[in-house]
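Structure first, sequence second, as always.
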């Protein structure tokens, strides 16, 4: 009897481990012609974010490229969750490709997601920011520094079981839920405007003395 229990345990533990270790393809492309590009701010309205639409709608935009920008995946372990419930996924900070593949993250073929099982549905969001030579390492720091930044609309993502790939429209790639989107130039805060005004006043008084 003890031998049987041991054998059952040895069989069940790996299965539970497998169910608990969901993963996804961390790329914003499903192949040639199916790229979900990320763009720099709108040249005509840099403080206004753009989402969705067709590729033609972004004809005047420049694609995000190179080591100067980070992308990070954020998640909440349930579907249809608001942004304030999302948390960064460990190991998901990446930079961007360049040249003919600009606008695409230098992602990973497999990103493990802790605490999520196969056939779960979660809420995901991709956040992007200018990292100032990699010194701005987090989204919170990007906000504090006034980095150019932006994020995709949150979207639901289903972690497929291997058998699910036989079903229509099932993919293990986050690009399935992404849309095109652009970064924005943040508008100056009231504190920043006050500091600029104060600096100008001090400079004016100093100039009049000489």
């Amino acid at each position: 009897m003890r031998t049987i229990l041991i054998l059952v345990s040895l069989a069940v533990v790996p299965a539970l481990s497998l169910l608990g270790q969901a993963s996804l393809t961390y790329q914003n492309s499903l192949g040639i012609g199916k790229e979900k590009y990320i763009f720099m701010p709108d040249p005509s309205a840099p403080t206004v974010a753009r989402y969705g639409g067709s590729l033609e709608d972004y004809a005047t935009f420049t694609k995000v490229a190179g080591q100067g920008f980070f992308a990070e995946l954020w998640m909440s372990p349930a579907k249809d969750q608001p942004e304030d419930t999302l948390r960064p996924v460990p190991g998901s900070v990446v930079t961007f490709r360049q040249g003919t593949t600009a606008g695409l993250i230098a992602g990973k073929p497999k990103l493990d997601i802790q605490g999520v099982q196969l056939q779960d549905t979660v809420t995901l969001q991709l956040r992007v920011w200018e990292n100032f030579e990699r010194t701005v390492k987090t989204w919170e720091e990007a906000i504090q520094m006034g980095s150019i930044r932006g994020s995709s609309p949150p979207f639901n993502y289903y972690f497929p079981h291997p058998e699910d790939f036989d079903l229509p429209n099932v993919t293990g790639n986050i690009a399935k839920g992404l849309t095109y989107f652009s970064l924005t130039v943040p508008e100056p805060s009231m504190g920043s405007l006050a500091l600029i005004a104060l600096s100008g006043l001090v400079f004016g008084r100093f100039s009049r003395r000489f």
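Margin note: The helical segments are 2-20, 139-145, 190-209.
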